[in-house]
Write a structure and sequence with these properties.
Elements: E1 2-9, H1 15-21, H2 28-36, E2 41-48, E3 52-59, H3 62-77, H4 81-85, E4 89-92, H5 94-104, H6 116-130, H7 136-155, H8 165-177, E5 185-188, H9 192-203, E6 209-212, H10 216-226, E7 229-231, H11 236-242, E8 245-248, H12 259-265, E9 268-272, E10 289-292, H13 294-298, H14 309-358, H15 364-393, H16 399-409
Helix pairs in contact: 5-7, 5-14, 6-7, 7-14, 11-12, 14-15, 14-16
Amino acid sequence: MNLLSVGASYRTADVGTLERLTIGDGDVPELLAKLVKQPYVNEAAVVSTCNRVEVYAAVTGFHGGLADVCNVLSEISGINATELAGHLYVHYDEAAVLHSFRVSSGLDSMVVGESQILGQIRDAYHAASEADTAGRLLHELMQQALRVGKRAHAETGIDKAGQSVVTAALDVAESHLGDLTGRKALVIGAGAMGALSVATLTRAGVGPLKITNRSADRADRLAEAYGATAVPYDQLDAALAEADLVITATASTLPVLDRARLQAAAPLVVLDLAVPRDVAPDAGDIDGVTVIDIDSLAGSRRTQPADAETAAVEQIVTGEVEHFLGWLRGADIAPTVAALRNRAEDVVSAELRKLYSRRSEFSEEQRADVSRTLHRVVQQLLHSPTVRVRQLAAEPGGDQYAALLRELFDLDVPHATQADAVPEIGAQE
């Protein structure tokens, strides 16, 4: 079994493409079920955020697995497979492990060091577990990715400034509005990003602060927690007219702020952190209205700070990748070792049957003694070689030992010898 990650992010796709790839929480189980029904995909997990959509899969072949994942992404997004390929990045085996650990530690984030990705990976892992699409490989990968991310934040200062997409957006807003202290602000949406926005605005001294959400209860709870004011959703236009700054981060599949609504609220700075976007595409050129969305942030140098702490995180990631690969190589040889032991047991059993057919005078006690002795001899003969081969398999290049065992003893291990299951050693897919 091999590990494959396929995805699109702010690095490879514009927000329009990410919108089409976006997967709502309610659609994740169906997508996971569709992925594991593909011929080459045995396990699957999906990470979907405002600026990335990634599939992690355990596959029985690189080319077949990649085609399966791409076909499913093409189907759900409605993007032609050829066009979609231009926006995707692909990582395989070691590179997939490295990528997942860099993502979990915040190194691949739009705002380096942001910690929200840990919660998003945790949600992806829980969804895959509940859908029963995470097997041994993805369980281990996701658990270790979460652990690596926690290490990065606990052992370095990569997130010491509390960086997030919201802080980056506020930096851009400040270049338009000046000092944000005391500015009237409105947050639309009370989900995870909305809550982060409220917390960040409060720390920055922005206010008075209002919150609105389709579900009034969530807005009320969030407002109470931060000393803000909850506004009924049907009073959105009035709240917009009073605001200097708006952060919108809803889960709506349709625009929340259309051209007419924004024209009536000008002047205004809008931070659209939703994917799909909350601001209508034709509302970006209104006099007095500045719209900052994910595309704007991706192009801003504020979202790519130079941070000396990243070197320490990279060192953690490098060590953890090697540790995981050692586990993976050991796990890969386990079926081969098991097949070798089964072969030995089969040989002993066959020889015992032949012996007993010739020596019918053996009593049951004698037969049991002979059987125990032969099995013990075989176990002792195999013990040291199998322990040693597990140790060797955990070292770089260790997958060769499993292949040698299969060849020497003509072992039939499922999935171990498929033509494109393992690229040539040293090759980079």
